[in-house]
Amino acid sequence: MNATIMTERLLLRPPQMGDAEPIARYLNDFGVAGNLARVPFPYHESDARAWLRTRVPGLPVEETNFSIELPGEGYAGQIGFHRGPQGPIVGYWLGRPFWGRGIMTEAGRASLDWFFGASKADIVYSGVFHFNAPSLAIQHKLGFTEIGRSRLLCLARGAEVEHIDTQLTRSVWKDRQR
């Protein structure tokens, strides 16, 4: 699915090959990559291009990704959905220059609103590594609740790391939008 979303400050759009350079620049920062499960470190432009080649038109809702762009500032990060063993998972990251500005909360609200409108899923899952308090705070703002702990492989760290598992139900999302 090729959706585009405008918010007050952001453009959420389909990823494109022109995003490869900023993706590689921001993900080749261990402070970013070390918070993500599926991102190796170091991270190269060839890694970004390989991932971007998987973002083809016609993917199902549960495989949709959005590039986060700030008009006047350019590419800032990524938010998207993928299929997990329990159901759809939302994952996200921002380049370090964009941290602490409320950007991911805004992108999260818009993409979750889109997701619950476009899919039949009743639950979306997410989570954070135990040391990533800022990301957990974003999830709490969005209505996610903690459902347990697990261990998850972090490619950048080359190790299994304690993970706080979270979920957001459609009913909680709808109640929070009223």
From TrEMBL:
Q: Which residues cross the membrane?
A: none
InterPro entries (alphabetical): Acyl_CoA_acyltransferase (IPR016181), GNAT_dom (IPR000182), N-acetyltransferase (IPR051531)
Q: What is its EC number?
A: 2.3.-.-
Q: Which domain of life is it from?
A: Bacteria
Has keyword Acyltransferase? yes
Q: What does the UniProt keyword field contain?
A: Acyltransferase, Transferase
Keyword Acyltransferase, does the record have it?
yes
GO function terms (MF aspect): acyltransferase activity
- The N-acetyltransferase domain covers 10-171
Family the UniProt entry places it in:
Belongs to the acetyltransferase family. RimJ subfamily.
- Know the name of this protein? GNAT family N-acetyltransferase
